[in-house]
């Protein structure tokens, strides 16, 4: 079996989609499956990760040749808004485009049950939930970087942190307001920071953030973020799964999340703390609770144990089964 494992715009797209593709290719290697990263209509399966125009073109031709088409549903109109400049404008016409594009597949891979529910309103193409997974090997030795990264960004424990692109959808307004309300606590957001891609409101939130709120920009070794951070605060409003959250769990960090459907599988008070509603007060109260080192230790330990279900080793065979089903 040979897979055409294609990632359109591979040289330009970063963040969770890129990480998912990296994980998939590691899993293909584990399965000892042959694959090419180019669109190839001589392959047994055409698997695309981003349904751009070139992917759609190849998907149509693959179907004409009876080559099974598999597509990951990383992008939805719901999570596209409040991301970068102009994405709100593009979100509305994006849904009918994705309805047609995802409809070309024989099987769709959804990273979560929540994402699956959304996609089933787009198309009747069969869906399968397969997590993006977490690469546990990527984080090996992270704790040895604690002193270096705390000193680099002038952070004191307990540091409230987040990892990923700095975008409004991920709860930027809440994160900044929490830092403003808790001036004696250090907040750090580790991730790419290109203001030329941000809208005016997002740029203002970043530029007007208080002194105890650090935006690091690109980090050369992401392990340093999990070494320097103590409480993973993720007030996102919309998420398809959240690879950074899985990484924080693997690192044994206590989670503080907004109570959205995506995170329904997390148990409040067991492996995380959840905050309902869109206000900041609940997050502030939860952070006050997390000043307790024993609570942080217990939640982090439970999160680490739970993360094992999302390891690449645990997810790999699901791709084997999917490929065997569509071939």
TrEMBL record:
Signal peptide location: none
Keyword entries, A-Z: Transferase
A single GO molecular function term of this UniProt record: glycosyltransferase activity
Coiled-coil regions listed in the entry: none
Domain Glycosyltransferase subfamily 4-like N-terminal span(s) in chain numbering: 41-137
CDD domains per the UniProt record, alphabetical: GT4_PimA-like
A matching Pfam family: Glyco_trans_1_4
Protein name in UniProt: Glycosyltransferase involved in cell wall bisynthesis
Species of origin: Natronorubrum thiooxidans
């Amino acid at each position: 079996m040979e897979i055409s494992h294609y990632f359109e715009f591979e040289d330009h797209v970063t963040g969770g989609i890129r990480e998912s593709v990296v994980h998939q290719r590691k899993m293909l290697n584990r399965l000892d499956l042959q694959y090419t990263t180019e669109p190839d209509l001589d392959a047994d399966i055409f698997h695309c990760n981003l349904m751009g125009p070139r992917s759609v073109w190849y998907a149509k031709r693959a179907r004409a040749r009876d080559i099974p088409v598999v597509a990951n549903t990383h992008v939805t109109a719901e999570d596209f808004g409040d991301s970068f400049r102009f994405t709100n404008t593009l979100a509305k016409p994006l849904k009918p485009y994705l309805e047609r594009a995802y409809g070309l597949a024989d099987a769709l891979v959804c990273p979560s049950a929540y994402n699956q529910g959304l996609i089933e309103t787009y198309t009747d193409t069969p869906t399968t939930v397969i997590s993006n997974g977490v690469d546990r090997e990527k984080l090996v030795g992270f704790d040895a970087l604690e002193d270096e990264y705390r000193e680099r960004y002038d952070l004191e424990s307990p540091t409230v942190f987040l990892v990923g692109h700095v975008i409004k959808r991920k709860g930027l307004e809440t994160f900044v307001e929490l830092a403003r309300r808790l001036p004696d606590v250090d907040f750090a957001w580790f991730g790419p920071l290109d203001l030329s891609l941000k809208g005016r409101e997002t740029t203002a939130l970043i530029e007007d953030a208080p002194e105890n709120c650090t935006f690091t920009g690109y980090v050369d070794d992401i392990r340093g973020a999990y070494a320097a951070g103590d409480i993973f605060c993720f007030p996102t409003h919309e998420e398809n799964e959240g690879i950074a959250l899985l990484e924080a769990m693997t690192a044994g960090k206590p989670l503080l999340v907004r109570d959205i459907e995506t995170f329904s599988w997390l148990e409040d008070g067991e492996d995380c703390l959840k905050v309902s509603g869109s206000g900041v007060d609940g997050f502030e109260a939860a952070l006050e609770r997390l000043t307790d080192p024993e609570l942080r230790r217990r939640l982090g330990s439970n999160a680490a144990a739970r993360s094992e279900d999302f390891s690449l080793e645990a997810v790999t065979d699901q791709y084997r089964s999917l490929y065997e089903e569509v071939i």
